[in-house]
Amino acid sequence: xxxxxxxxxxxxxxxxxxxxxxxxxxxxxxxxxxxxxxxxxxxxxxxxxxxxxxxxxxxxxxxxxxxxxxxxxxxxxxxxxxxxxxxxxxxxxxxxxxxxxxxxxxxxxxxxxxxxxxxxxxxxxxxxxxxxxxxxxxxxxxxxxxxxxxxxxxxxxxxxxxxxxxxxxxxxxxxxxxxxxxxxxxxxxxxxxxxxxxxxxxxxxxxxxxxxxxxxxxxxxxxxxxxxxxxxxxxxxxxxxxxxxxxxxxxxxxxxxxxxxxxxxxxxxxxxxxxxxxxxxxxxxxxxxxxxxxxxxxxxxxxxxxxxxxxxxxxxxxxxxxxxxxxxxxxxxxx
Length: 335
Ligand code: FPP
Ligand code: MG
Hints:
- The protein is an all-alpha fold and 335 residues long.
- 73% of the residues lie in helices and 1% in strands.
- The structure holds farnesyl diphosphate and magnesium ion (MG).
């Protein structure tokens, strides 16, 4: 019953921005292609893959590929495959992430690990990664193969970095930005760069597309980290207020820990206690992050990356599409 309410509230929030309407025909093709990855055989795998692919999601990464394709030439069949495989990798990584985080909710529904179990979740994630590799082969472009192979290793490196640095209060901004680039920026950048490569843009234009995706991706992760502090599970369609409890030092906490305010020492001690002894310590730590201005500063940092993303859009000559890519960047930090 609780899950049904969360699903309803989550869906009700989802109003369709104009940049998505602009590419709705192409997005429909991507959606159909995504469903073609549901195994034909009527078994547990097809049940799980169907459950996860039909759970929706904003399809932000495919949308950026499609807008860049449209803004730099034609949307060809290979762009649709690129958008599809990007969403497959994203979905697979979330399935594995939910196992690691022991999360119960995703996209307003129960996670695969909570509805079934961790073992079948690993297999389901692996299956989607495998399908993404099949699609990558269909694109027949060695440069794009290399980019996406690197994305997969980046995802693993980002995730392991995060794992080994839990509850460490002396992490640097370089570490946080690098980790965000590996976890999130890398796939966004590939989606944008890949679309530009398929339309045979110049080296410098391809680099601008890559930078747009990189900056939007990092901003997306910062905003995601911020929303964990400021939004409810009903609003997000996934669990909230869980990062710090799990020892993840994200932008709001890092800003609080590096502020001029002497209360940062208290916050440091609370985090280093790993909230094992007293549950109230966790509430105190969250309060301190807010009081030391961590959330406002994280918002400003995300905005800074969005500004850099927009400054990279000179490779899009069509003003309407440039505006849509600019709005898409804003949408990511205003969600
Ligand atoms: C969500 O982060 C997770 C990611 C962006 C990447 C997760 C990557 C892996 C688990 C490794 C993938 C494995 C292979 C084989 C390539 P989050 O926990 O910050 O976001 P959330 O709040 O949505 O859970
Ligand atoms: Mg997670």
